Amino acid sequence: MSKTEADAKETDAMKAGAKETDRRMTERVYNMNKKEILEIRKQFTPANCAITRICGCYVDHEKEKKMESKEAFLSLPEEEAFKYFDIFKKTLSGTVGKNILNMEFPIDAEMPGGTQEFLLKLRSSKLQDDMLLEEFYDKVIEAYDCAENYYIILIHAMYDVPGKSSDGIEMFDASDEVYEYLLMSLCPVSLSKAGLSYNAESNCIQDRIRDWIVDMPDKGFLFPAFNDRSTDLHSMLYYTKKSEDLQPGMIDQLFGTKMPMSADTQKETFKMLIEDTLGEDGDYETVRNIHETLNQLIEEHKEEPEPLALDLTDMKKVFEQSGVEAEKMESFDRNFTENAGEKTSLLASNIAETRKFQIETPDIVIKVNPERADLVETRIIDGRRCLVIPVDDHIEVNGINVQTIKMKEREENQETYN
After folding, report:
1. Of 116, 175, 260, 270, which has the fewest beta carbons less than 10 angstroms from its beta carbon?
2. pTM over 0.90, yes/no
């Protein structure tokens, strides 16, 4: 492609971006949901592969480039390609809102010379501009906080998006758009474990040869986003293996996008909201009811592709339905705004515990099936506050079956009742 053609294509992309800005100001802003993410993941197979080019840069713990590669993806050996497919699938895996985050470019990042413009140029180059690639690697190395060796993988792909009928059936002969995108995976590279191995050639046990293994990605991104099954130049998708480790510095330097609230921060925010609203006399039953109400909402929403997001109004209803006193609800709006922000939404999957219900005291930890949290009650017995758990004759202590009361006591009790 000539420089003139490349510039013309870039101008068209920016014009499309301007139109998208107008649309974004007047219509709903879409986020990639799990169905759209799955649609892109499905391309990472030999039959559906839309990858045109793959580039890589191996960086050591001193932030020095040790190796660079670039080639057509379809020229890779089959076994090697399959291993890359696994890495790319992993980069688009996890829970939306926890490991996979939708990010939107602010207006200043879309200005000439901004972070979005650089990514657009990189995409338009189809990864065939060596100077752009070197600049990209340098940006990543500078921004990525990692004290170990790692491998930067960057791919360019062009997905011919099939149209869909009104009943959701894909029509591959009715494509409306080609979705052109970049996907980056940042993979740690670690030294294999020391040990003994069997050498088939010499038929002996010997010291294992240690080599450097490319692990599954720690970070990654998809640009542009595939929102509403269409190209969205104003958004991107960010992947993090650990939800508590977003690396905000890298997000700011590489993308300049709005920093989302991490899953761990959302959970802590929700905890503070409960404590501030209920005050010092927050009781067990009310807190249990709040968690049960949340879990019920998640269950009702589980078939929806979009994650369940709760804004101030939605969260207020959760508290009211859970039996929080009207007097305490008077300060709810202020508590929500101070802890989360007036226009912030919290994802239900990030703040609710659907797999466990845990009660702790300084010396005791009780884990309860979330669906049977009603079994635990609080009572005053002999002047002391107690947790009461009804049990039948079968309980286990460190895996040993025991009786709740001794046989003699049981017989005495039966005689008394008879």
Report:
1. 175
2. no
